[in-house]
Amino acid sequence: MSTKLSAFMGGLGIDARDKLEVAANATVTVGDGTNFGNVHVGDNGKFIAGAADDFQILHNGSQTALNNLTGDLIIRTYADDKDIILQSDDGSGGVEDYFRADGSTSESLLYYSGNEHFKTQQTGVKVTGNVDVTANVGIAGNAHVGSYLTIANTNPAATDSLVVGGNVRIAAGSLIFADGTSQSSGSTTSTFPTGDYGLLDASNVSTDAFGQTTGGLTQFDMLTSPTGSVDGQDLGALS
Questions:
Q1: pTM value?
Q2: I need a labelling partner for 153 at 20 to 30 A (CA). Which of 62, 73, 77, 190 fits?
Q3: What is the pLDDT, as a whole number, of residue 119?
Q4: 3-class SS at 164?
Q5: How far, in Å, CA of 219 to CA of 196, rounded?
Q6: Which residues are registered as beta bridge partners of 126?
Q7: What is the pLDDT of residue 2?
Q8: Is the pLDDT of residue 213 over 60?
């Protein structure tokens, strides 16, 4: 047996000390199935679900909270091509996305002021803009740099590809030089100079390891004094 309360029956007053119970498996509908009304709960009142009041929706007059007191909180859409979106009013009557889980592409996106900055993809992630890292970065594969790479130096020249403000240590391997015309990348190698921070290529003492004519410099490292003539070009690799 069901009992309906209609608009013509007047108000239904329930004392705050009393409780309105609905039988198990029953459905409470506000409206006639087509035109729906509202359920109002005052400040600090709660919508509660669960035998132990495990899930609560409440508003205290200034903030709204969804409290999940046990288990996982799952937000799910059952339409494969529909998105899950978190938005905020942009202050001009419109909305801006904070987060979007794209149901069509399975991508997740993070925004700042409506602009996409982080996207998950099948191959990994894509970042639009700068990435500030305060700790270490571990790279298991290759690192590809599109313009220039700076280490402890934030003001590279327009023609620089690598700017290092500290030391460069090569424990093993060779330096590869390619002039872009007669040589291809990786086709010609030059052994790194012997001695501590030596400048001279042992195979060609008239040219240093950076391809500059030495003008008479025959030896220069941190353990011995230079012999021969020295000019500014000789030390250009250290500037």
A1: 0.56
A2: 190
A3: 95
A4: strand
A5: 11
A6: 119
A7: 54
A8: no
Instruction: Provide the token pair at 139.
Output: 């790279």
Q: Where are the domains of the chain?
A: 1-74, 84-127, 169-239
Q: How far apart are CA 43 and CA 61, in angstroms?
A: 5
Burial (CB count within 10 angstroms: exposed 0-12, middle 13-18, buried 19+), residue 98:
middle
E-assigned strands of the chain?
A: 46-49, 55-59, 64-68, 84-89, 95-101, 108-112, 115-121, 124-127, 149-151, 162-164, 175-176, 189-190, 200-201, 204-208
Relative to beta strand 200-201, strand 189-190 is unpaired
Q: Which residues 6+ apart lie within 8 Å of 200 measured at CB? A: 193, 208, 209, 214, 217, 218, 219, 220
pLDDT in tens, 119-152: 999 989 999 999 888 998 899 988 888 888 888 8
Residue 200's pLDDT band (cuts 50, 70, 90): very low
Q: Is 7 helix (H, G, I), strand (E, B) or coil?
A: helix
Residue 215 dihedral angles phi and psi, to the nearest 5°: 65, 30
Give residue for tokens 């008239």.
Answer: 206
CA 75 to chain centre: 22
Nearest in space to 210 (alpha carbons), one of 186, 179, 177: 177
Phi, psi of 7 (to 5 degrees): -65, -20
Residue pLDDT, tens place only, 33-52: 778 888 888 999 999 999 89
* Cβ proximity of 44 and 58 under 8 Å: yes
Q: Beta partners for 86?
A: 99
